[in-house]
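User: What would this chain look like folded?
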Amino acid sequence: MILEPFSPFSASEFQVKFATCRWEREQAHALRRSVFCDEQGIFAHDDRDETDDRAIPIVALSMLGVTADAVVGSVRIHEDEPGIWWGSRLAVAKDFRKIGALGATLIRLAVSSAHAMGCQRFLANVQSQNGPLFRRLHWHSQGEFEIHGRPHLRMVADLDYYPPCLSPEIGFVALPRKVA
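Assistant: Here's the prediction, encoded as structure tokens.
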């Protein structure tokens, strides 16, 4: 009998939802540190700031059958003033970036859940290299500037494209693209 080489597990779907458990919030912060501190070198030791005290963390969870096994993506949202919401710290783990649906689904839940909570305008400061993704998702640039030594775009979501999501604790399922 010839045994085939072991192939690593690959999640068949991902759940994108509000972080409701402590482990989800902790892994989301660890992912952000990995991306923004270790990988990109934007922050020295930690990317946490005062926004984290009032922000709602959203996570992308890889699913092992019906059980979540790891946070592989994260974003946070917060209301800055009545009706004005912001998204920030969008991060997807390096090994999962090839799954195109994760970043888009995190963005979709961020805007749709804020829309359900009275958002009238949703903004984000987006690293310039991510501008094309946001444009495909019906965002419009309001100008270019620099944050933390990196070029960014101030972008605004077209709320007509994002119907309110009334169940963000359950969220959405993101299915990986089929790779040819």
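DSSP finds three helices and eight strands in the chain. If you want, I can go into more detail on any region.
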